[in-house]
Amino acid sequence: MSAKKNHSISVYLNQEYPSIVKSEGIYLYDDTGKRYVDASSGPILCSLGYGNEEIADVLKEQTLKASYVFRMDFTTPELEECCARICEKTNGVMDRVFLVSGGSEATEIAIKLARSYQIDSGNPSKFKVISRWLSYHGITMGSLALSGFPYRRANYVPYIPSTYHIAPAYCYRCWFNQTPADCDLECAQALENEIMMQGPETVAAFIAEPFSGMSLCAAAPRRDYFKKIRKICDKFGVLLILDEVMTGFGRTGKYFAYEHFETPPDVIALGKGIAGGYFPLGAAAVTAKVFDTIAKGSGVFAAGHTWSGNPVGAAVANKTMDLIEESNLVQRCVEMGDYLAEKLEGLRSHPIVGDIRGDGLMRGVEFVKNKKTKEPLDPAIKFWVLLHQEAQKKGLVLETSGGCERGQAGDMMMLGPAFIVRKKEIDDIIDLLDDVLLGVEKKIGF
């Protein structure tokens, strides 16, 4: 009897994928009974873990109450509560929220809000958005244009509009050959240089991730980086957009990662953890200055997709925030994150572990051929792909990535287990990872 044909399209079109039939806590189970330890919460997404019955109840209850209303015609109590609570979590820094269907959509809405603000401020010539190389802001054409992730951009460059990028804040491989202890934040000064080169009268916004996602796997700048960025933005009337799709809602041990840098933005893009992994949801939040300017100007913001403002998503986000508060999960990210960092240090005995970085339950590891020179592994090996495959064979789910050395080489992985992870489970993750690394090292001749 022939095997059943799959009709879904996934990433690797000629690969057979395990079929998951059950999930619980940080574990996934396929149809053969094999168990997988999810060390990355999917793509750093399922912050509440799998199988949460309270969220399941909310999904059913809200679906029966009001599953959908079109935002051009109506609002709902769930939506208004969700938006108010997000603003409250910023201590009033943000004043209004636009709920969308995911992170890529959130970053696009963020730049459209920035453009609308500039037009209604009487600056219609300001339209350019500057971002950073080795950044990732989403996979739709607009968000991909902002991204500086060569691996994901390459095939679609002909369709991408002109974009403007500066050097990343990447201390391990500083593009200016500096160290955090001695530098003058040349990576931040690069923004002012680019604004001047483009013409200050044309630049609307600057977008950046506080902690890098999969393009640099948890790399973060020196703590005063964003203070300098903020001054430059204010000097030239440029809005600061922070992409917190991966970091928001507690992942780094703060409710929002910008708190680590004590620098509030004008716009925040949110996603992933906003609904704990139980509903496709994202959001763009703006300050009162931005919203009021648009409201008093054109009075219209005609952007968004069909599912924007969905009441089921809003209800799930509300319950997610309840659970984060009730179980003190942001503080748990600090405690479990510190423990994870401690256990990761044991992996430095591997000859290929070059850098370990991150905060809270968002930890990245970069792999190298030579620790002293930071020479990357031969890109032909595709170490990051081998690592992912070997880990899955052994029942460990990892997010891996490549291209951190100027898009031409470099291998990384990201660990981001659910906030509910326990110390014993972290021990198991590290033990499995240690075994996986030994296996891949042997394969590539290390």
Walk me through the structure.
The protein is of the alpha/beta class. It folds into two domains: 20-51 and 329-443, Aspartate Aminotransferase, domain 1; 55-326, Type I PLP-dependent aspartate aminotransferase-like (Major domain) (Aspartate Aminotransferase, domain 2). It has 13 helices and 15 strands. It has helices spanning 41-44, 53-65, 77-89, 103-120, 141-146, 150-153, 186-198, 225-235, 288-296, 311-326, 329-344, 383-393, 423-443, and strands at residues 20-24, 27-30, 35-38, 96-100, 128-132, 164-166, 203-208, 239-244, 267-270, 282-286, 353-359, 362-367, 396-397, 399-405, 409-415. The strands form three sheets. A seven-stranded mixed β-sheet has the order 4-10-9-8-7-5-6, sandwiched between helices. Strand 1 and strand 2 (27-30) form a beta hairpin. Helix 3 crosses helix 10 and helix 12 (383-393) crosses helix 13. The chain is globular, with a radius of gyration of 22 Å. The mean pLDDT is 96.
Quick overview of this protein structure:
The chain has helices at 41-44, 53-65, 77-89, 103-120, 141-146, 150-153, 186-198, 225-235, 288-296, 311-326, 329-344, 383-393, 423-443, and strands at residues 20-24, 27-30, 35-38, 96-100, 128-132, 164-166, 203-208, 239-244, 267-270, 282-286, 353-359, 362-367, 396-397, 399-405, 409-415. With 446 residues, it is α/β, with parallel strands linked by helices.
